[in-house]
Amino acid sequence: MEFGYGVDLHGQDVNKAAQKAVKDAISHSCLCDLEEILGVNLDEVIVEAIVAVSRPEEIDEEGIKAVLPIGQKYVKAVKGGLRVPGIKEPQFGDTEDDSIEVAVACVTVSIK
Predict the structure, then answer these.
(1) Burial, 64: exposed, middle or buried (Cβ in 10 Å; 0-12, 13-18, 19+)?
(2) Is 24 helix (H, G, I), strand (E, B) or coil?
(3) What is the rounded distance in angstroms from the CA atom of residue 103 to the CA atom of residue 8?
(4) 72 - beta bridge partners?
(5) Looking at residue 20, what is its pLDDT?
(6) Residue 94, Cβ neighbours under 10 Å: how many?
(7) Any bridge partners for residue 4, and if so which?
């Protein structure tokens, strides 16, 4: 189990923030020798990503699954994360307002 966070500084995109959070979480883990020691096929491990964002109904589950490199992938979006004021700069991608979207992720890898 690993945790990570991701930020979309401009654009207010919960998916970009969530993908960065998942990438951050998996960058802290190492599954070396899982195949050799436990005899587990990496395509068969269960990988669950729970992402907390301000607008969970906007999460594209397939987009989040795309950043997970192995396993049977499951995504769950929950209300959370953080939305704070920033600077609105349309040339940087701000579309809605001046807010910064922050996501938190928990990625769990388990075997059957």
Answers:
(1) buried
(2) helix
(3) 9
(4) 46
(5) 98
(6) 19
(7) 105
The CATH number given to whatever domain includes residue 34 is 3.30.1330.20
pLDDT tens readout for residues 74-96:
999 999 999 998 888 877 777 77
Number of structural domains the chain divides into: 1
Give CA–CA dist 60/4, Å, rounded.
18
> Where is 74: in which H helix or E strand?
strand 72-79
- Tell me the pTM: 0.89
User: Which residue's structure tokens are 């990988």?
Assistant: 47
Tell me the two tokens of residue 64. Answer: 């989040």
Across 59-64, average pLDDT = 98
What does the pLDDT look like over 5-58, one tens digit per residue? 999 988 889 999 999 999 999 998 877 777 777 788 888 899 999 999 999 999
Q: Are 106 and 77 within 8 A, CB to CB?
A: no
